[in-house]
Amino acid sequence: MTSAGTAVTRELTAELRGFRDVQRLAYACAEAVAAQLRPGVTEREAARMQREWLYARGVRDWFHRPFAWFGDRTAFVGFKVPLQFFPTNRRLEPGMPFILDMAPVHRGHTADVGYSGCLGLNPVHDKLLADLREHRELILREVRERRPLREIYQDVDRLMVRQGYANRHRAYPFGVIAHKIDRVKERRWSPTLFGFGTQALKGLASDALHGHREGWSPLWSPYTFSDHPPRPGLWAVEPHLGFRGTGAKFEEILVVTDSRDPEQSAFWLDDDLPHVRRWNEEGTAA
């Protein structure tokens, strides 16, 4: 089994390398922006910093434009309507957790990443990040077992309860823990609608229509439309833990194939990501 500390070496196709490269680009952006955050910076400023960093490196289209959440907004406290997800004038303070979330399209490939950090020391946030490792391992294991997506979602819920946390991805539209992503046609003009790229949305809508006819959904949710085995393709997966006013998550690409080899049937696209490196470093220190 592939885990955070025992990555399987595999040759990626040129297509998968394209997705890995844009995912690495997005995480490099998150780390660069996180290193620049200071007390007083607003969520809107942090979102703009992500946009400008990626624009300078050739990004012109999005699955969704960058988000930033500070303090108790990392746990979606009081979120009732979709507009509350958009960046606000909330200012970062010492000890505050933050999440940077972006989904750029680059050279036709899409990534959707979530980066959790903290401005200074915060033991609760550190514990949340450490406990996310078990979720990454559980999700991969059960996808390889071809468990229905809805059942895996429920197992993630149960693990969160055992850990003493609240499920915060339930606050997302349709309560999704993941969604499919795919290539997006490169165009000279790439408009957005409510912060989401129209080309990427068209692709997701096409998948939803196609999947409805065949009995599957591109949205991985707790509802009956996700009561089917994992569909081959690329899934942006984001388990999101909350404890009172603190939230933390990761988001990265899970590759699902139709291979009968368990290690090839599903794997995380990249094990060289900030949260995985953190867990490996903690394991080495222990």
Structure description:
The chain has one domain: Creatine Amidinohydrolase. The chain has seven helices and 14 strands. The chain has helices at residues 14-36, 43-55, 123-144, 149-163, 198-214, 262-265, 274-285, and strands at residues 61-70, 97-106, 109-110, 113-118, 166-167, 178-181, 192-193, 196-197, 219-220, 233-237, 240-243, 246-249, 252-256, 266-268. The strands form four sheets. It has a five-stranded antiparallel beta sheet, with helices on both faces. Strands 1, 2, 3 and 4 form a four-stranded antiparallel beta sheet that branches. Strands 5-11-12 form a three-stranded antiparallel beta sheet, covered by helices on one side. A hairpin with a 2-residue loop joins strand 2 and strand 3. The radius of gyration is 18 Å and the shape is globular. The protein starts with 13 loop residues before the first helix and ends with a helix. Mean pLDDT is 92; it is low at 1-9.
Percentage of residues in strands: 15-25%
Classified in CATH, the superfamily is: Creatinase/methionine aminopeptidase superfamily
> Which architecture per CATH?
Alpha-Beta Complex
Low-confidence stretches: 1-9
Count of DSSP helices? 7
